[in-house]
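Person: At home tonight, work slowly through the protein below, taking as long as you need, and write a paragraph about the fold.
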Amino acid sequence: MAALDCHDIADLRAAARRRLPRGLFDYVDRGCDDDRGLARNRAAFDAVSFAPRALRGIAERSTQTTLFGRTLAFPAAIAPMSPAGLLWHEGEGALAAAAREAGIPYTLPTESMTPLAAIAAAMGGAPWWFQLYLWADKAESLRLVDRVAQAGAEVLLLTVDTTVSPHRAFNHRSGFATPFRPGLRNVADMLLHPRWLAGTMGRYALGTGVPRMLNHPGQPGALGGGGPATKLNGGITWDDVAALRRVWPGKLLVKGILRADDARRAVEAGADGVVVSNHGARNLNAAMPSIAALPAIADEIGRHATVLLDSGIRHGADIARALALGADAVLLGRAVLYGVAAYGQDGAARALALLRHEFDTAMALLGATSPAEITRELVAP
């Protein structure tokens, strides 16, 4: 089976599940606790239905949009996802190349296994973004920000919803928690998936060695590990957003916002916008779905700041739902990660092509000729 044989994101998910060790697949696929947060995310998207306009003359239409002065092929960017380099050999580079070819930005995470310069080269002048965690050592975090700016990233996403490490019991049971600790269960799991073992970890072993967090300060950090300097900073406040604004020359987004008052505070602190996100239901199981939080946040800041939506996009119609409720664009997470886990760059490209095609179809059936015409008036009462 090849990437082109996958006809929706569910097909790519199934292919990823076959190729990956079970513990690693669960790390990508599941949320936290009993996964009810994941179910609520999906249910909240499904609860948004449309009242399409008829006979609108949609033969000539375009999915293109403009974001931060850049023309995007459709209103999306790839979300920051740290496990990509474990799912496929040099998976972050594969995601970046797929994003470039699809005409959308790629976001490199702090916990990345690829040097900044390599991502900049893979994007070839196309826009790419960087996601930042503020470490306990703020000075080291700001030094990283300076390196990111020098490398050419255009947008910085400060993640604020992970001030402590979440508890994911299933990762501990499988041995695929962070930091990774080899044991009988996870070693047996890996041996039972030889395509992944040879194609991913085997290639690392023959080349650069065990992948590490290459953007950590000093010596590259072990997977999921790192020293005291890179411990999550639970003491960050809005003052830290303002401080980051003073040193970051590009666009600044605060990621992990679910409240309208927090969105307003982000803009008052100097952010250019926010990412409405519950971290893919991976942190607080009881957090509200981001699509449910979106309308109030868009009403609060949407007229003078950028609003992106993250967490739960599985179909092009979900992109339309987000735009209708006030988002300017979305971040694509697991949907694209399944693709790279199954087929590398080809799989990521297939995921992006499917989502764009589904979005174009939804747009046409809604009676819209551009993303700008997908407004709240199309949402069914």
